[in-house]
Amino acid sequence: MPEVRVDEVRRFMEDSLRAVGAPESEAVAHAALLLHADVTGHFSHGLNRLEFYINDISSGLTDANAKPVILKESAATAWVDGANALGATVGNFCMDVAIRKAKECGIGWVVAKRSNHFGMAGWWALKAQLEGLIGLTFTNSSPILVPTRAKKGTLGTNPIAMFAPATGGDYIGVDMASTTVAMGKIEVQIHKKEPLPEGWAMGTDGKVTTDAQEAFKAGRLLPLGGLESTGGYKGYGLSAIGEVFCSGLSGSNCTHRVPKWSFTRQGDPMDLGQCYAAIDPNCFAPGFGERIADCLRTWRNLEPVDPELPVLAPGDKERINAEQTTKRGSIIYSESQIESCDTMARKIGIKPLKVV
Length: 356
Ligand SMILES: NC(=O)c1ccc[n+]([C@@H]2O[C@H](COP(=O)([O-])OP(=O)(O)OC[C@H]3O[C@@H](n4cnc5c(N)ncnc54)[C@H](O)[C@@H]3O)[C@@H](O)[C@H]2O)c1
Fold this sequence. Notes:
Elements: E1 3-5, H1 6-19, H2 24-39, H3 47-58, E2 69-73, E3 77-81, H4 87-105, E4 107-115, H5 121-129, E5 134-139, E6 160-165, E7 171-176, H6 183-192, E8 201-202, E9 208-209, H7 212-218, E10 220-221, H8 233-250, E11 272-279, H9 288-300, H10 316-328, E12 330-332, H11 335-348
Helix pairs in contact: 1-2, 1-3, 2-4, 4-5, 6-7
Bound molecules: nicotinamide-adenine-dinucleotide.
């Protein structure tokens, strides 16, 4: 499998974004978001997604030079117009406002309309956690989650992220789609030429499928939990919570009106809704960091069923992946991922990725 140095992946991402007109600061910010995904092992949301953003900018669907503005605010809240800027531009703007408000009055709750895809929801919640705050993020997305008992994708993979700090620099990092997996994981299975596990997706006939191509074509993901018999309606419920905080509060498109995202898309901007919150635990019972550290210690020290597979806390997998990537200094991609990047590099006239 081809390996690419981490700095070279960053160079390629930044060059690509600059080549289609993103200003330096936003190319750097958006590349950092995508690189974090590959470094932490979420290959669905890194290089795999780059061409989508490149198409959105070059076809005028996203305005990489736009600046978000606050439309209305109180001490603890802000309603933001994302101005159709890049997801990372809106994410940095909104989470910075939420963090400032949480430091001033204990909580900052910020919602944005007219945003674009902001990658890993956890990247934004992590920003608050690094400031000693609890970070929460939600976004709506394209309509591909099939509500329980329905046939058609209507809600989104609407991810939920919550990062909470513990003493000693430790943290809980929950970051998950409200579908069994994110759509990008189906694309990764296609790149790897592997079938899907049962319970990820439906085919065009409305039946559960393990064929990655068929699932991609149908664009119908099962909610977290799968079918009704295995509690899939709870994933449907989680997606609905995201919808309330995102489109409900911001006035953006509801998910069923969001256009389908692809790297050849034309038409209207996505007008996504997003929600960014920060909470200062110091406003509540003393000893928050110690209690979270105690939970983490207890969970990780549980006796595992398989001694080869230790019990993890939410966020551990990504932290372990990041440590391994940093130690190796390179990221391992599939052959077809590198080929797609080469084709895109030729199209936009930048230096291709240098494989080690
Ligand atoms: N922007 C969007 O529209 C959008 C939509 C969907 C997903 N996403 C992003 O895609 C990424 C992947 O989402 P996903 O749901 O497919 O990821 P996933 O299924 O890998 O779940 C990730 C979460 O589960 C935790 N986890 C994994 N294994 C664990 C274990 N053994 N024990 C305890 N916790 C464990 C991880 O630490 C993390 O919190 C996320 O970053 C998400 O925000 C973005």
